[in-house]
Amino acid sequence: MSDKVRLLLDSMGSIQGDGSICIVILVEESRRLQLTFVTDDAMRRQLSMRLYNKDEGRSLSKLLPEVMWESLRGFSDSGDYEMVVESVGVDGEYHTVLHNKIFGGKHPIRLSDAVLLQEVTGIPLYIKLSLVRQQMMPYVASSNTTSLPINVMPLAVLEKGLADSIAKEDYHMAQRLKDEINKRKSLNNKGGKTDEGNQILL
Question: Are the C-beta atoms of residues 96 and 88 closer than 8 Å to each other?
């Protein structure tokens, strides 16, 4: 059995009330589980072009990622590489690496950039099996809501959610968000990392 699971780009959306933060949904190949993460509006535009405009390959062929990959194809192909989501850091980011399987190089890459690279090049993106159990949840096609692991929510979103929860007198949610904020600040001061992911419905 493999120690990793392949991820594919499924869809994108935004956090209700904050269109500047993009939610990206990745699914494993059988489409039973999903991994959700957030990225910025600039990456949302890049991913949208590849996800929703696949028939316009001609216009995409002149964009930098496609041009760079095309220029390197004579020296390498997508089978020479793989990308793996290895952990979740105290910064609330999925720590992902690009592996060169031929020469053994290992380079950190943002998860959003790894998704874009997979869409452009076909280099496969995987997640470690240990993270599948902690971070992924059942996939529901065409759902208007999704859950996002609290440990990968941007700090600004956690802080806004805390203020909103207090204003709505939802003290249980406020406590969960406050605990996550405090845990991150504490771990960040200690230089630690966390892989624990509790889900919050968005």
Answer: no
